[in-house]
Design brief:
alpha/beta; Rossmann fold; pyruvate-formate lyase- activating enzyme; 5-stranded mixed barrel; binds S-adenosyl-L-homocysteine; binds iron/sulfur cluster; binds FE3-S4 cluster
Length: 449
């Protein structure tokens, strides 16, 4: 029986927190549940099944979910099933069932295959936590239900083997494993056949992809031949996995976009060592130089943590100087959040950086990042770029579009232009985003990088 002819099993709403991997997992869950007769709905009101797909990366992320679980009570009737999935579910397991009595299901990232039967059980009154890892699981036979008709996220790897000392992900998603290249190729062809022209490959250290036979360079080159694909991105790579092979594949595959999100975490070799990032300031900068040498004008963005245990003023200054040296397009900046069970949680308390110091450092870092991106963005005014229109912008009457370098441009237009490629001239910047004017073909000039 297919989904069209099958009797409805009820409605399902999934609320997603955390990274793109979770967004992608929610699409897989929607797809699986739709095949079992569940109808996806856009909000919790009246939904028969509510799933909260959670993140555990920082304490703040978990507190938000705890608050939200309380709020969701008001949408629930006696028969509503409320489940918690994702990384916080994996981390807390059965303790979450004790803590929130209205939660019936707790399912970790490797347990989604069992969701339909677990939901059935919950409807009969069972309360279950399923948090075992399955190192074979890639959900290859699930058909992701995508709501974005312009861009697609395709997971190519699950888990992480790096074990950075601050990070909970190895504990919530288990060991690293890669999908087969042929399977990724099949899914890419499926999404482009539906008219999607931009794909982002997902993995915690996506460029360490290896399916036993093919590495990430092979994957990029092979996907570069997907009919209908115009833009290929990936997130997040690890600096140590940028082999010359991978960089050459990026440079030589025309659909691979000129943007790399390259998490730095710190610009101090001493801090990086305590973080167990497995590179130094110098080798990170060398990786940046290799990328820039092979891909002229490549845009770089990053993630940075301040206040990691033992971070001195000098070490923090090294982070600021690295940010100035690299000239990132943008950076996601975080205050260190201590996660139970991670190696950093076992460091002596005397190494703790106070909230006050960490907050002051974060403010200074943000100011330096903004100053750099503003200067760069001003220098780009007047240049021309190909953009892909993604969606209606929050600001009235404008569309949100993006350059290959992942810069956001707001352009005038209507909804019929979503999904189209346009040439725009950058006319203004707020510091982080641009406004652009459409350029008509009669004035075609070479596009800037
Ligand atoms: N796998 C990716 C990162 C995934 S988590 C990578 O290695 O690049 C996304 C970001 O959250 C990290 O890059 C890091 O900057 C931040 N982060 C992770 N754990 C954190 C913690 N305990 N406190 C603060 N920020 C953290
Ligand atoms: Fe976490 Fe490090 Fe793995 Fe990224 S590479 S997910 S930061 S352990
Ligand atoms: Fe959060 Fe899990 Fe992603 S902890 S950042 S949802 S891998």
């Amino acid at each position: 029986m297919n989904a069209d002819t099958q009797r409805s099993a009820g409605t399902v709403y999934i609320e997603t927190y955390g990274c793109q991997m979770n967004v992608s997992d929610s699409e897989l869950m929607y797809g699986r549940l739709a095949e079992c007769g569940y109808v996806p709905v856009g909000g919790p009101e009246g939904a028969d099944v509510i799933l909260v797909n959670t993140c555990a990366i920082r304490d703040h992320a978990e507190q938000r979910v705890i608050g939200r679980l309380g709020e969701l009570k008001r949408y629930m009737s006696r028969d509503t099933v409320l489940g918690v999935t994702g990384c916080m579910a994996q981390r807390l397991g059965p303790a979450l069932l004790d803590r929130a009595k209205h939660v019936q299901l707790v399912v970790g990232p490797d347990g989604y295959r069992a969701l339909p039967s677990l939901i059935e059980g919950a409807r009969r009154g069972e309360r279950v936590a399923k948090v075992d890892f399955d190192l074979e699981e890639h959900y290859e036979d699930f058909h992701a239900r995508r709501f974005d008709g312009v861009r697609a996220w395709i997971p190519v790897q699950r888990g992480c083997d790096y074990k950075c000392t601050y990070c909970i992900v190895p504990m919530t998603r288990g060991a690293e494993r890669s999908r087969t290249l042929s399977d990724v190729e099949r899914e890419s062809a499926e999404v482009t056949a539906q008219g999607i022209t931009e794909i982002t490959l997902l993995g915690q250290t996506v460029n360490s992809y290896h399916d036993g036979e093919h590495d990430f360079a092979d994957l990029l080159r092979r996907l570069g031949r997907t009919p209908g694909l115009r833009r290929l991105r990936f997130t997040s790579p690890h600096p140590n996995d940028f082999t010359d092979r991978v960089i050459a594949a990026m440079a030589e595959t025309p659909v691979v976009c000129e943007h790399v999100h390259l998490p730095m975490q710190s610009g101090s070799s001493r801090t990086l060592k305590r973080m167990l990032r497995r590179y130094t300031r110098e080798s990170y900068l060398e990786c940046v130089a290799r990328l820039r040498g092979a891909i002229p004008n490549v845009a770089l963005t990053t993630d940075i943590i301040v206040g990691f245990p033992g971070e001195t003023d000098d070490e923090f200054e090294e982070t600021l100087s690295a940010v100035r040296d690299v000239q990132f397009d943008d950076a996601f900046t975080f205050r260190f959040s201590l996660r139970d069970g991670t190696p950093a949680a076992r460091l002596p308390e005397s190494m703790t950086v106070s909230d006050e110091v960490a907050t002051a450092r974060l403010d200074r870092l943000i100011a330096v990042v903004r100053e750099g991106s503003r200067a760069r963005n001003l220098s780009l005014l007047g240049s021309r770029h190909e953009v892909l229109v993604e969606k209606a912008a929050r600001r009235g009457g404008l569309l949100q579009a993006r350059t290959r370098h992942h810069r956001t441009v707001l352009v005038p237009g209507d909804a019929s232009m979503i999904g189209r490629y346009l040439t725009v001239e950058l006319t203004g910047t707020t510091g982080s985003t641009f406004t652009g004017a459409l350029v008509h073909n009669s004035r075609a000039l070479p596009l800037a990088g």
